[in-house]
Amino acid sequence: MENDKKLFLKNFVWNILGTGFNSFNSLFFLIIVTRINGQTEAGVFSIAFAVALTLYTIAYYSGRLMQVTDTKNIVSDKDYIGNRILTCVVTMAIAVVFAICIKGYRDEKLFACILLCLYKVTEAFAEVLYGIMQKNELLYKSGQSLFAKSFIGILTFTVTDIITKNLIISIISAIIVNVIIIICFDIIVSHKLIKSDDRYNFNHIIGILKTDFFVFANSFAGIYVLNAPKYSIDKYGNDDMQAMFGYIIMPATVIVLFAQFFLMPFLNKLRMLYGDRKMKEFIRLSNMIKLAVFLFGIMVVVCGYLIGPEILKIIYGVDDIPKYRLHLAVILMAYICYGISYVNLITLTTVRKTFIQFVIYLITMAIAFAGSNILVEHYLIKGAAASCVITLGMQFVIYTVATKAILYKICRENKNETYS
To answer: What DSSP string describes 112-155?
Structure first.
C-alpha cells in the first residue's frame, strides 16, 4: 500500500512537470518569437501553430485515452504503434496539401506551417509510447520525457533563434531535440514493456481507425472549435492582429492544462471503477475533478482581470495588451466551460459513449464556424473573444446535460447503484 502511494505521487508529480512544460511550449515559443523576431512573425508562428495543433489530432487519432482505458487488451501495443506510424505519415501528407493548395501559404508561413506540423507529429508518435508506459503504471517516465523535450527544446529553440534570427531554422532545432529523445529514451523504455510475443496485426491497425473514429472526430472538432477564431483572423485580419489574439488567449491554456494534468493520474482509477461498475465512486471522482477545475478557473479569471494584462505586457513587451483586459477575462471564463467539458469528454469516453460526443461537436463546430466568421469579420478581436464565449458556453451546456443523462441511464441499469 505504501509503495502504491509513493508510485501514485511520483506519477502525479512528474506528469504535472512534463505535461505542464509541454502545454506551455507554445507560450514560451510565442514569447521568444515576439521578443527576437517581432510581432508580425509572432503572428505567422501563431497561425502556423494553430494549424499544426489541428492536424496533430489526425496523427494522434484516438490518442492515449483509448489506449490506456482499453480493458479488453485485444489490440496489442505493437498494433497501436503501427496505427500511429500510419496516422503520422498521413498527417504530414495532409499538412503539405493544406498549406500549399488550400491555404496558399508561401515562403516563411508555408515552411513554418509544415515544420510545426512535423514537430507536433513527433509528439504524437511519442504519445503512443507514453500510453504503453502509463498502462504499466510508469506515467512518471512519460512525464520525465515530456519535461526533457520541453525544457531542452525551448532552450535549443531560443539559442538558435538568438544566433540566427531565423524562425525556420529555430523550429528545425526543436524537431531535432524531439527526435533524439524519442530514440534515446522513449523507444528504449517502451520496448522493455512490450510483450516479446506481440506481433503487428494489420487488421487491428486498421480496426483502430474504425472503432476509434468518433474519438478522433471529437478531438479534431475540439481543436478546431478552440482555434476557429484564429482561422477567422487569418482570413479577415493580419499577422499583427493574429499575434495580439495569441497573447490574450494564451493564459487560458492554464485552465486547460490544470484540467489535463489533474485528471491524467486518475485515468486508471476511472477505468477500474467503471470496469467494476462502481458507478457512485466513478461519478463522485468525476464531479470532484470538475469542481477542482471550476475553482481553479475562477481564481485564474480574477487574477487575469486584475493583473493579467500588465504581466503579459512585461512578458511580450507589447504596450497595447492592457487595452484588451475585458477580452482576456471573457476568454478565461469561456475556458472554464471548456475545462469542465473536457472532464465530461473523458468521463463519457471512459464509458465508451463516443457517438453522442460526435453529435455534440458537430453542433459546436457549426456554432464556432458561423460565429467566428461573422463576429471576427465585423468586430475583429472583440468578435473573436465573443465567439469563444458563445461556442464554449454552448458546448458546456450540451455536454453537461448529455453526461448527466448517460450516467443516470447507466446507474439505472446497475440496480445496486444510484446516481448522485
So the answer is: HHHHHHHHHHHHHHHHHHHHHHHHTT-HHHHHHHHHHHHHHHHH
